[in-house]
Design a protein that fits this description.
about 90 residues; mainly alpha; 3 helices; extended; single chain
Amino acid sequence: MRKAWYAIAFMIIISPLFGIILANMVGYHEPLDVAAEMLHLKDISDKINWTPFYNYTVPGLPDTIGYIISGVIGVTVVYVLGKLVFGGAKE
């Protein structure tokens, strides 16, 4: 199980490389954003933003750190929900 946690930690740490740095280098845009733009829909996310982690960022911190913090929170939520739903089930 320790190897799995190391792999998860490694993926969380390198996530900004793919989610921010390389995405900006190649000009990547989320497919839903592209579709909304093609349909001329207005972006109202600044008016209905319900999360402090908008676009995986943390206010006051660099985007790369926000990506890592968002990853840790996401993994923690999934782990806790898995423990609640499946209990301490062993394989």
